[in-house]
Amino acid sequence: MKKILYIFLTLFITSNALANQPIDWQLGFQKAASETMRDIVNFHDKLLLPIIIAISVFVLFLMVYACVRFRASANPVPSKRTHNVAVEVLWTLIPCLILIVMAVPSFKILYKQDAIPKADITVKAIGYQWYWGYEYPDENIFFESYMIETKDLKENEPRLLAVDNELVVPVNKVVKVMITANDVLHAWALPSFGVKRDAVPGRINETWFKAEKVGTYYGQCSELCGIKHAFMPIEVRVVTEEEYQEWLLDAKVKFAKEINEEDQFKKLARK
Ligand SMILES: [Cu+2]
């Protein structure tokens, strides 16, 4: 009994620590942590869901009504009518209008996501089989981000989501993310920020987010990329500006990008 009550409670009460990752018995989206995601959630919850429910109820009503009202015993001589202009015009026009009503806010959100505001910081996410690499092009930082195996997990680290080196970004700053891949298609996706972009070898996709709350957020590779597709999660730690600056100082030493031969050659050529 207690167990059932507990499961029931978890449906409605979620602890803060679990707010940024999928939870057991979850219905709907993860909690929004950016304006973009809030737009998406509002659009879904306040417009799409009511429309879908209304259409489903209406169709169900029509089916039940037709089954009862026109059953063989109640309606022994069926109508031979094949056309009704008024009904045909209506069942074409009304769905069109519904689609237009949905399309207008949908495109608004889409364009808002697409226009990248002036970026405060830029990071580059590179998909590999099967882990992510992160580069801070302005800071000369590059590191690789691997999933932590289940046996090595520490307390509070979620299984299949925690990584060894997470992406660190400051709170309330526009982060531009350049996304590419080194081998096959991957996709960089972070539900709490409303971000998902394909990582395509040989080309760069761009997106952005502005995290509004400090915390750790989890996402996963979202393009089937091979046998370990499920084991290359994305972890983003959003910190305050001071903490970010501190992290940068460390990271510049720990993750200093090695100057490869080509870069060295360019440097020499410039001299
Ligand atoms: Cu992948």
Q: Biggest sheet: strands side by side, in what order?
A: 3-2-1-5-8
Question: What portion of residues is helical?
Answer: 25-40%
With helices defined by DSSP (H or I, 4 residues minimum), what is the helix count?
5
Distance between the termini: 77 Å
One letter per element, helices H and strands E, the order comes to HHHEEEEEEEEEEHH
Cα-atom radius of gyration: 25 Å
**Structural class, please?**
alpha+beta
Q: Which stretches are low in confidence, meaning pLDDT under 50 for 5 or more residues running?
A: 9-18
Tell how many strands the DSSP assignment holds: 10
Major sheet: size, sense and barrel closure?
A: 5 strands, mixed
Kindly state the mean pLDDT as a whole number?
89
Explained architecture:
With 271 residues, this protein is an alpha+beta fold. Helices cover 37% and strands 22% of the residues. It contains five helices and ten strands. The protein has helices spanning 2-12, 35-69, 85-114, 241-254, 261-270; strands spanning 121-128, 131-136, 141-145, 167-170, 175-181, 186-190, 195-199, 205-209, 215-221, 233-239. The strands form two sheets. The chain has a five-stranded mixed β-sheet with strand order 3-2-1-5-8, with no helix packed on it. Strands 4-10-9-6-7 form a five-stranded mixed β-sheet. A hairpin with a 4-residue loop joins β2 (131-136) and β3. α2 (35-69) packs antiparallel against α3 (85-114). The longest helix has 35 residues, at 35-69. It is elongated and about 90 Å long. The model is unreliable at 9-18 (pLDDT under 50). The site of copper (II) ion (CU) has 6 residues, from loops.
